[in-house]
Specification:
157 residues; five-stranded antiparallel beta sheet; Jelly Rolls; mainly beta
Length: 157
Amino acid sequence: MSFKTLSTLHPIMCRSGPSTGRNVQISDAELQVMFSNVYEEANVHYNNTNGTFTAQVKGAYFFDLMLCAENQSGGDNTRITFGFDIKEGVAAVQRRETYACGELGGTGQTVQYGFKQIVTLGVGDWVQLRIYGNAGGNQIYNPNTCHYNVFLISAFS
């Protein structure tokens, strides 16, 4: 395998969301359609109806997901488990997740959750945004306070 290193992180996909305020208990369906505002995209195959990024170039990718919300349930800790399902070639789908607990004691406090992963993908492999569990209540996701970025770190030939 030979490596073709890029001089800088080349943005493949930079998105933010939601496009309008959302007062929801975050779920797969909500997360997967949240990132509708496009800032930069190059050679991207991203399905905004199911939150799936499909690699068009074989290489190492950096995935950066940030959720920012205002707690709407006083005394609730806004606990969520979220991350990515990853499908590489013929292997079974892999689950990469993080558990986040905002430990918010009152309504209206803001919390940020972030999750970052480096993944090697072949052409046609995919990564899907997922919420695996939500023990919290409703949160408000304000316009453009969350982001989802994908960078190609190094292309492989």
